[in-house]
């Protein structure tokens, strides 16, 4: 599903990604771990098509197609979803309105009919209940005044509605207490499917107790420096990132 | 070959002849010569068959105007207007316009297309010569004529007077004499005084005591009867306990050969009466270099003359090259209330200096100001507001919220609040914010599948929501669409 080859990205003269190689086959869940500042979020932004990065080398193939020259909204319509580490606030726009606008924009881009309001409401209701997202929350402006946990639940709700092929979760566990972590992880696990791939970015191993990955990668200084099975996460938890921070320098 | 030559000659002959003897004479009889003088004022009054008192009123205004200077305090810049180089009276048909849609600014046409305006109406809006005559001759008109007739009958049953100002001067002289200039005095300001001398036409509304006007009154029904010209004059009176909601304007951008527009609107609310006045103003802002747009210098004021009366102004301003406009409320009656809800969008080279004045005279008077300015392109957007409490206005309260949103980094937003209080018990609250649409917000929306333009529209609609909610339903939907269109191309 996703193939990243020798990806180099920089902002100004600062090189952040220095040759990322990564392959995520369809249906698999991969985790990326690594010290702060190693380039994990940058990788997720570059995958999603955020402006402001110079891609100096490398390629990103999604379902065999080069996507680097596609704008963010086209990549979204192709099925790439990013759950943000820091979800943005949009004052005055009800969460429900935003969800509908997003879903219909993607459907339109794919040549599908827009959903009728009752049809849409039914889908939202189903997904929201599973994530403990209340109707009251859906009426509030998007992410405005939401607690950390509410924001993250709202990200997963969007993922559930948009049904992406590839979901990238950037530090979805940060700022969550243990109960909230369970709700969010259950939500993510419910979306695991043989047709969907996931890239779970995290600094801590604890998320991977709940969302058990098929493969774990370690990122350091803008590169994937090691890959292994779920046991690699436990090893990192025990030893810390000291080795990799050293390797980066 | 010969036939062709003959045709050419014939056309040439007709052309010359008509120019010399036909059309020009016609036009001359329908249009006063350029410039302003007592004679022109007399001419205007005579053309409208006005009574002597109306003429005297105009002349008085004209003489006072001669002693006044153009104000310069607003944050707008434009070449000096030569008031002797303008026409002050032209009958509707004589205005020169483009010969066909081919001669109209393509940007303007694209906007009509997006708003879904039928072809024939596009011609009228763009001022294509003869377009409105054709309309009279063809189909659609029969519908709208009958709609207008039913509409008028229903109003009559309720006792509401809704007619053109010219008609009111002739048919309801006592009302006009009593109220005209009673809110905006003849000498109020340079443009209002000019308007008083030469006003072309406008609406007159009178709602009798205790009557709730059975429908929204819309200029749409009146403007189609007759082009009102550049010096519009409107007067609305709500008697004790009456209620009326009035809609002015149209979401389609109007093109007009008259670059200067100086309208005056006066509202009078007596005891327990309420007037809601909503405007969507979308005059031609000029081409992409800012050329040819309308200068809009308006004086709008409401007088809450009776106790517990209420006046609320709601405006969505997206058009004009220059907007100079401060719909205001004089809160004279005890416990009266004034409201001002405004969205002012500027893009390209537009300049907007708009706001309100809330003058608290009576006890326990309340006012509320919600202003949302959106600046994009190279435009300048200024909110200018005055809230004042006079000695007797004990317990007066005001709440002002003034937000600006910037799109891009070549535009400007400015907030100029003036607050004066001569009564210690008055409570005035003022909140102001300036924000930018952050790249991160746009990216977040685009990651979810929205295009950058859809993302801007969504964020902007969220920003203006509090004001949009004040508009009548069908206006609200159109206004949202209009705001999005006005901001197209402002990012990326
Ligand atoms: N827009 C930017 N401009 C300059 N430096 C940046 C920018 N974005 C990220 N960086 C830098 O790149 C490095 C990687 O950042 P990031 O991708 O956020 O790491 P992580 O998510 O792994 O903590 C950090 O040193 C960070 O300061
Ligand atoms: Mg990060």
DSSP strand content of chain A = 25-35%
**Mind describing the biggest β-sheet of chain B?**
11 strands, mixed
Mean pLDDT of chain B: 80
Helix tally of chain A equals 10
Spatial separation of the terminal alpha carbons of chain A: 32 Å
Number of strands of chain B: 19
Quaternary state of the chains: heterodimer
Strand percentage of chain B: 25-35%
CATH class of chain A: Alpha Beta
Spatial extent as radius of gyration of chain B: 23 Å
Principal-axis shape of chain B equals globular
Helix content of chain B: 25-40%
Q: Which segments of chain A are poorly predicted (pLDDT under 50) over 5 or more consecutive residues?
A: none
CATH H-level superfamily of chain A: P-loop containing nucleotide triphosphate hydrolases
* CA-based shape of chain A: globular
Number of strands of chain A: 10
Order of helices and strands of chain A: EEEHEEHEHHHHEHEHEEHH
Q: What radius of gyration of chain A results from the CA coordinates?
A: 18 Å
Q: What do we call the CATH topology of chain A? A: Rossmann fold
Can you name the CATH architecture of chain A?
Answer: 3-Layer(aba) Sandwich
Keywords (chain A): ATP-binding, Nucleotide-binding
Organism (chain A): Kaistia hirudinis
Family (chain A): Belongs to the ABC transporter superfamily. Ycf16 family.
GO molecular function (chain A): ATP binding; ATP hydrolysis activity
């Amino acid at each position: 599903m996703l193939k990243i080859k020798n990806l180099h990205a920089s902002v100004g003269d600062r090189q952040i990604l220095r040759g990322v190689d990564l392959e995520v086959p369809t249906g698999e869940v991969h985790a990326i771990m690594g010290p702060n500042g190693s380039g994990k979020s940058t990788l997720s932004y570059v995958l999603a098509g955020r402006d402001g990065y110079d891609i100096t080398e490398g390629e990103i193939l999604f379902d065999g197609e080069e996507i680097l020259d596609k704008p963010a909204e086209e990549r979204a319509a192709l099925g790439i979803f990013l759950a943000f580490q820091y979800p943005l606030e949009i004052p005055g726009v009800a969460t429900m309105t935003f969800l509908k606008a997003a879903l219909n924009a993607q459907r339109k881009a794919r040549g599908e009919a827009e959903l009728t309001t009752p049809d849409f409401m039914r889908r939202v209701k189903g997904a929201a209940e599973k994530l403990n997202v209340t109707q009251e929350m859906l009426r509030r402006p998007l992410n405005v005044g939401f607690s950390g946990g509410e924001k993250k639940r709202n990200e997963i709700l969007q993922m559930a509605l948009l049904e992406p092929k590839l979901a990238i979760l950037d530090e979805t566990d940060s700022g969550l207490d243990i109960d909230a972590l369970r709700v969010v992880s259950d939500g993510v696990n419910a979306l695991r499917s043989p047709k969907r791939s996931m890239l779970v970015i995290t600094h801590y191993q604890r998320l991977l107790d709940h969302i058990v990955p098929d493969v774990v990668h370690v990122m350091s200084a803008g590169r994937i420096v090691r890959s292994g099975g779920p046991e690699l996460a436990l090893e990192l938890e025990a030893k810390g990132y000291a080795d990799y921070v050293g390797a980066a320098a | 070959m010969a036939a062709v030559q003959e045709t050419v000659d014939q056309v040439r002959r007709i052309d010359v002849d008509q120019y010399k003897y036909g059309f020009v004479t016609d036009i001359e009889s329908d249009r006063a010569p350029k410039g302003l003088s007592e004679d022109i004022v007399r001419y205007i009054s005579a053309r409208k068959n006005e009574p002597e008192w109306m003429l005297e009123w105009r002349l008085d205004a004209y003489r006072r105007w001669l002693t006044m200077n153009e104000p310069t305090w607003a944050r707008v810049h434009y070449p000096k207007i030569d008031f002797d180089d303008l026409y002050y009276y032209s009958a509707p048909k004589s205005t020169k316009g483009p010969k066909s849609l081919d001669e109209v600014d393509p940007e303007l046409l694209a906007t009509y297309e997006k708003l879904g305006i039928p072809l024939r109406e596009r011609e009228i809006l763009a001022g294509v010569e003869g377009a409105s005559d054709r309309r009279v001759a063809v189909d659609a008109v029969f519908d709208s004529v009958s709609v207008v007739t039913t509409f008028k009958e229903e109003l009559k049953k309720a006792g509401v007077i809704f007619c053109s100002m010219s008609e009111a001067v002739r048919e309801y002289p006592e009302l006009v004499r009593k109220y005209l200039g009673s809110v905006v005095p003849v000498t109020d300001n340079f443009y209002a005084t000019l308007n008083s001398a030469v006003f072309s036409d406008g609406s007159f509304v009178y709602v009798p005591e205790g009557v709730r006007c059975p429908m929204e009154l819309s200029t749409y029904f009146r403007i189609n009867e007759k082009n009102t010209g550049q010096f519009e004059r409107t007067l609305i009176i709500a008697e004790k306990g009456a209620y009326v909601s009035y809609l002015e304007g149209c979401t389609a951008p109007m093109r007009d050969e008259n670059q200067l527009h100086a309208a005056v609107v006066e509202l009078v609310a007596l005891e327990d009466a309420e007037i809601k006045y909503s405007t969507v103003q979308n005059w031609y802002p000029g081409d992409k270099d800012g050329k040819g747009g309308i200068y809009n210098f308006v004086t709008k004021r409401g007088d809450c003359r009776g106790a517990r009366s209420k006046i609320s102004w709601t405006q969505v301003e997206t058009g004009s090259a220059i907007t100079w406009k401060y719909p205001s409320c004089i809160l004279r009656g005890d416990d009266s209330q004034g409201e001002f809800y405004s969205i002012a969008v500027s893009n390209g080279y537009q300049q907007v200096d708009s706001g309100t004045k809330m003058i608290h005279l009576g006890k326990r008077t309340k006012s509320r100001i919600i202003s949302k300015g959106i600046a994009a392109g190279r435009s300048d957007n200024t909110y200018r507001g005055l809230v004042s409490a006079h000695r007797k206005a004990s317990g007066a309260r005001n709440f002002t919220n003034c937000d600006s949103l910037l799109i891009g980094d070549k535009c400007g937003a400015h907030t100029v609040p003036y607050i004066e209080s001569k009564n210690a018990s008055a409570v005035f609250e003022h909140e102001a914010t300036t924000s930018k649409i952050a790249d991160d917000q746009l990216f977040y929306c685009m990651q979810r599948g929205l295009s950058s333009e859809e993302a801007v529209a969504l964020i902007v609609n969220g920003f203006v929501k509090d004001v949009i909610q004040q508009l009548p339903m069908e206006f609200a939907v159109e206004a949202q669409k209009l705001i999005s269109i006005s901001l197209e191309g402002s990012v990326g």
